[in-house]
Amino acid sequence: MSVNTQDIIPAMHSRFEGRQRDMEIDNVSIDSRSLQNNIGTLFFALIGQNRDSHQYIAQLIEKGVLNFVVSHIPVEVIGKANYFVVQNTLTALQDFAIYYRQLYNFPVIAITGSSGKTIVKEWLNYLMSPDYTIIRSPKSYNSQVGVPLSIIGINERHNLGIFEAGISTVGEMEKLEPIIRPDIGILTNIGAAHDEGFATRIEKIKEKLKLFANVKTLILQQNKFIESELLASYPLKTFTWSFEPGADVQIITQHNTGSTQLDVYYNDTTFQAAIPFTDEASVENAITCLMLLLHLGYSYETITDRLAGLYPVELRLQVKNGNNGCTIIDDSFSSDYQSLKIALDFLEQHKTHQKKTVILSDVFQSGFDTELVYAKVAKLLSGHSISQVIGIGEKISEQLADYPNFFPYKTTQEFLAHYKASSFEDETILVKGARSFRFDEIVVFLEEKTHETVLEINLNSIIHNLNFYKSRLLPSTKIMVMVKAFGYGSGSYEIAKALSHQKVDYLGVAFADEGISLRNAGISTPIIVMNPESSAFAAMAAYNLEPEIYSAKELRAFIAVAQQKNLSNYPIHIKLDTGMHRLGFEENQLEELIDLLRNNNLVEVKTIFSHLSSSDVPEYRDFTLGQIAKFDQWSAQLIEVLGINPLRHILNTSGIYNYPEAQYDMVRLGIGLYGVGNDETERAQLETVGTLKTIILQIKDIPRGESIGYSRKYRTWQDTRIATLPIGYADGIPRAWGNERGYVVINNRKAMIIGTISMDMMMVNITGIECKEGDTAIIFGKAPTVSDIAKALGTIPYEILTSISQRVKRVFYKE
Ligand SMILES: *Cc1c(COP(=O)(O)O)cnc(C)c1O
User: Which residues bind substrate (predicted)?
Assistant: First the structure.
C-alpha cells in the first residue's frame, strides 16, 4: 500500500500534531508486537476491553514507528512523533479503510450469514484463483476491526475481492457496508450464532441484510421472508437456489459414500457435479459457491471440474509438540503472502524457543511478478528474524537462493527423504504450504509420536473465561492467575504465554521449580510461589520468584538468604490464616511478624493475603464473611503499624463470583479460567477449555452371554458391539468411572463404559452407534463435562483435571 498522510487527515476527521505532515505510509498496524512496525507504519492505538494500546507508543517510537492515530497524546510522548488525533481510534481505522477502499475499483463479493462464511470464502478463492488475482479476508477477519484490516490489504494488482462480514450486535453492519462496498452479495445460512445481541431473529436478519444495501445481485437459498424484506428495502436482484422447484436454480442431491452428486437445473438446462462431502453444511456451502460461478458465467464443464477438487478447510493454526523439544505450528493448507504474514505474527507470539524455522512451499499470488512476490517474502522472513528457511518447490528454491540459511528442495518427497527427525532440536517450526504440497505429511513426520490420546486446550476459551471474571470486577482490580499443578493439568507454560498479552498482573505456582520452568521459557510476569521450601530460596532469588511467607520461621530463613545474597527490598507476600487452617500467620503471631518486618529493608511486603475455605459453599456464608472480616482487620493492622502500602487479596474463583465486595486490590483466579465454575449459572457463562479425546482402536461384535474385561464385571445380555479405546487409569481416568458408571461420546452419541477400566485401555458399548475404527471418542469436554464426571464420582473437578497424566499429549489451539 502507499498512502500519503496529507490525504488521510481529513478522511479520518483527525487533527494533526507533529513535525512532518507529508509522509508515505506503507502499512497499518494495531499490534505493538508485530515485527512489521517501522518507519512506514501507521499505528492505530485501539482501546480494547483489556488493553489500551496508547501505552505502547513510547516503545514503538523506539522501534522507529513515527505515525500514530490516537485519541489522546500520552504525556511522555508529546512532541516525539506525528499524531493524528481523533475521537475514537476504531472509528478512525474504519474511516481509513473507507478512504482506502474507494481508491480501487474492481468487483467485490461480500459474504455474511451465521455459519459457513469462512469456508465459502476459502472455497471461492480456490475455485476462482486460476482466473483472478484475489484479495480476500485472511482467516476469519470479519469483525469491526478485521474487516478494515482485510480491506487495507488491497493493492493495485488485485482484480477481485472476497470479504466476509460478521456481526454480534445491531448497528455493526452499517459500519461494515461502506468499508467493503460490495457489488455481489452472498448470504450463507442464517442460524443461531451470536443470538444474545439480538431481540429477535427478524432483527438479526434485517441487520445482516444491510450489508447488501448497494449490491447488484444477492445469492441466497430461496427464502420468501428474506426476499420480501429485501426487495422492500433495496433495489437489487436475487439469484436463488433451492432443493425444491421454484427458485432460479434447483438442486437435487444424491448421497454416495464419501461424495454427493448434485443435479443442477438452471435456465431449462441441466448438468451434474459431484463434491467430496456428504454432510449438510458442506453441501450447502458448495452449492453457494456453485451459484456464484453460475452467476459469473463459468461453463458447466469448468464448474464440474473445479467443484470436484474442494477440500476441507482448516480454520485454525494448530500448535503441536514436535520431536526433540520442538514446537510445530501447523498451517499446511495455504500459501499466499497475506496468510504468511499472519502465520509469522502467530509464530512470534507462540514461539517457545529462540530458534525459529520456517518450512515454506511456493507462494501463490497469481497476477504478480514472481520476483516481486519472493522479494516481499524474503523481506517478511528477515523482518521476523527467521533463523532457517526450508523452501520446497521449483519456484521458491530458485527465488530465495540468496536468503541466508536457506535450504531448497524441489518437492515434499525430496525433503522427507533427506531429513531425519533429529535434524531439528529445540526450535519452533512453522510449517506453511499450499495444499497441493501435502505438508500434512511433513507435520506427521515432525510431530512427537505418542498414542492417539490428546488433551486439546482451547486458548481462546481461556481468554474468554478470564474476561468473564474480569467483567465482574472493578477495572482497577488486579488479577493473579493460578497456574499451579501444570496449569490445573492444562499446561502452565502455554497458558502463561497466552495470558502474557492479556492484563494479568501475577502468576501463582505451588513450587519453585514450576516458576523456574516458566522463567526459562521466557515468561516475565511476576510469579508468586505459594509453598516455597527454604532449600529453594536462593534459586528463587536468582529467578526473580516471589515467596509466599506463611510463618516467622520461614521469614527468618528468607531474610538470612536475602542478607547473604545482598538483596534489598525483595518482594514477599504475607499469608494470613483466617480460618482455612492450612498455611499462614494466625492472630497471635502478628506481633512477631511485625517485629521481623519493622525497619527491615531486605524484604518488601508487596501483598498481604488470605485464602477462603468455603467460598463455594452457600451455607457457610457467615463463616466466609467472618474470614473476610478477620482479614480486613489484621491486614489493616499490619499496614498501619508498619506504615506499608501493599496490595490485599483474598478471593479465589468462587470468591470472585460470590463475594465481589471483598475484591480488595487483587483476586486469584484458578479453576474458573479452565472453564469450571462452581455453580450452574456461573458454569453456563464459561467456555470449555479442555477436551480429552482418544480414538477407537478396535471394534468387536461380542455375542450375548460373554464377559468383557478384567474380573468379568460386565456380561453381554444381548449381541453387543464394543469398541476398545487406548486410554485407561494410568492416563488419569478414574477406575470408578468404569462399569457403566461413566460414558464417552462417539459421533454425538453416548457410549457406556463397560467392564473395569484397565491401565491403558477401556471398552465401551457402541451397539447402535454408527462409528468405525479410528473415529474419535470424547472422554470429557462439552459433554460429559469435567464437572459431570466429578459429581458422579463424589469428587471435585480439580482432582479430575490435575490427574490427567503427563503422558497425555497436550495440543493447544487458537481460532
Ligand atoms: C489454588 C489457589 C487459588 C485458586 O483457587 P480456585 O478455586 O481454583 O480459583 C487461590 N488462592 C490460593 C492460595 C490457592 O492455593
Answer: 582, 759
